[in-house]
Amino acid sequence: MIGNIGYIKNKNISEKEQKREKMDEIGVSLKEKDLNQAIMIRADKLNNETLNNFTARKQVVENIIGDIVTKQLFTINLNLRDVNVEEKKMERFVIELVPRLKELGANLAITNNSILSESFIKEMNI
Fold first, then answer.
1. Is 106 buried (19+), middle (13-18) or exposed (0-12) by CB count in 10 A?
2. pTM of the prediction?
């Protein structure tokens, strides 16, 4: 039988691991109250010019991560109402954002979605 082999370096659970466990307990379904206490990504930050530029995209992601850390809110609401961008550019942004959120144990909620396909959302486990 082949399996994962490892060792326990320290029995103490890190703060990051505690946050992940807490988010796992909450589950993937977000309730309306969670969205009311979420960090909102403003539509004016998401345009074709910003999402087409790696440095600008990275800056938006860093700002979101900074807000999570300072405000201690672990739900991000990506509201796509009145956002006029190409699907591929929005996908690229989400692909870069989701792993960073998972590192912090944060959730991404996408509301008013008229851009991203259902298959992409399922593939990204959002």
1. buried
2. 0.70
Contacts of 48-51 with CB under 8 Å at 24 or more apart are 48/84, 48/85, 48/86, 48/89, 51/85, 51/86, 51/89, 51/90, 51/92, 51/93
**The two structure tokens encoding residue 70:** 């300072």
Tell me: the pLDDT tens digits for 18-73? Answer: 555 555 444 444 555 566 678 888 777 788 899 999 999 999 999 999 999 999 88
Instruction: Outline where the chain has alpha helix (H).
Output: 15-26, 32-36, 48-52, 54-71, 87-104, 118-123
